[in-house]
């Protein structure tokens, strides 16, 4: 099925309420579950496992609702994020689940900061069961942790930490402003005055103090460790389902419920009422291809020949993007009259699993998902553009080479033009910022030299690693030489073919990114041959991370996209005039033609 997602399109149903976007996983039981995810970067990492938990709860008979907080994911924008707004969103989700499914009992499950929101919301709600997964017990401790994580997530290619504004905190591209930071600093679950539920399950590295406080409030508390926490919230690429922990959550949520019986008429969900609107834009979820999910963002007023942009998911990040920047960019473009679709490749976010069960990064068939998205919008009439970063740029490049309907692409930090199947994907990802250039850059820093002199850095180990990588790279080059070449020939030949076809390409890199080596190897240096081959300068931006996570970096992305849009519009207008002139009986004469 292709088009707007309705209640018949999938087991889970996209819903909107109070300006929030969410997914309802229907079930026949009378005990419902509201999932309150973590916040910002941690929830981006946990997105797909969190969906797995929702599916497990629904399979056990509990209608389950997961949702995006205000200003997060696909929910409506906010002028200013506040903790009170997040707590109100939890209460709104509880009310929506009750009204929509008719459940008699409510279970609220919260992760990290979402667990804190859930506990605060439970003080004023009739919550039967509460699950707190590594809750933030004090906001000050959480802020200390996030400031530390901000120094390690999204590091620049030279190994340095991204700069921070003094009045905000950005973690993995997610920016928390001063007012939200003030709210967080005041959080303390020891101040709970009422039991947030009759029964609670607390899984965390340290449970004693909070469990005692909840017990004193009259809550029956079970506790345990949470060994799967680190793998759940650390990184979207390596995030994993904590199977044993989630099994305990499902067991607690379903404890004592009667066998579910189908309700007459089922759950009344209007799948058509899942659109969100804002200044200049309207959005609705779409399902297309082989289990692909995306968000179509339409402008209030669109020209018939206006371009449509496809945002291809980057890495394992959900379609809202690193730091929610894809959602923000899509809505700004809609205000300018440009439609877009942001979507998850199979194996990412809300789309189905790949048939082979593998990660989709640099998959040989990843372009097929992009082609399916092109099929979805091909009737719009205007040019079609692709935007993708790293592995998303890889899928976009291969789709651009294969599909003549695509007019151009903005490729951010394209790691390679052709993936070497002899390379181990996880190893390459872990070594992306551990390259020889990274070590060289570190050695230029005085502090690093002093550590070398004191013997705190094992230079022999570094040399050994670099030598081993060099040998392995040589073996791979030999194997590539013996392997049949890619479809369309070398990267230079494919780029030349795209230029002859009239397609526009823009390459944008962060300074020092490992992908620049592929550009030099296949297209030449920039400035120089690479620029001439591409037809535009290969833009290298200093001081930004691999994901272009800062506001300044995103401004450069927007500039590059506007440049691409102008070039594609010019080319499209030229082709349209030429086609009209060539039409029989047009009365127009092409230059050089009699």
Quick rundown:
This protein has helices at residues 41-59, 83-101, 113-122, 139-150, 178-185, 208-216, 229-233, 243-254, 325-335, 366-377, 391-402, 425-431, 436-443, 446-453, 459-482, 491-501, 516-523, 529-534, 551-582, and strands at 3-4, 13-17, 20-25, 31-36, 64-67, 105-111, 129-133, 169-171, 174-176, 199-203, 220-224, 276-278, 281-288, 292-299, 308-312, 339-344, 384-389, 408-412, 504-510, 539-541. With 594 residues, the chain is an alpha/beta fold. The protein is globular.
Structure description:
This protein has helices at residues 41-59, 83-101, 113-122, 139-150, 178-185, 208-216, 229-233, 243-254, 325-335, 366-377, 391-402, 425-431, 436-443, 446-453, 459-482, 491-501, 516-523, 529-534, 551-582, and strands at 3-4, 13-17, 20-25, 31-36, 64-67, 105-111, 129-133, 169-171, 174-176, 199-203, 220-224, 276-278, 281-288, 292-299, 308-312, 339-344, 384-389, 408-412, 504-510, 539-541. α9 (325-335) links the parallel β15 and β16 (339-344). The model is unreliable at 1-10, 433-446 and 588-594 (pLDDT under 50). It has 594 residues and is α/β, with parallel strands linked by helices. The two termini are 49 Å apart. It is globular, with a radius of gyration of 26 Å.
Fraction of residues in H or I helices: 25-40%
Structural class: alpha/beta
N-end to C-end Cα span: 49 Å
Question: What is the total tally of β strands?
Answer: 20
Biggest sheet, in brief? 10 strands, mixed
Which percent band covers the strand fraction? 15-25%
- Computed CA radius of gyration, to the nearest angstrom: 26 Å
The rough form would be described as globular
Summed over residues and divided by their number, the pLDDT gives a mean of 88
| Number of helical segments with 4 or more residues | 19
Unreliably modeled segments: 1-10, 433-446, 588-594
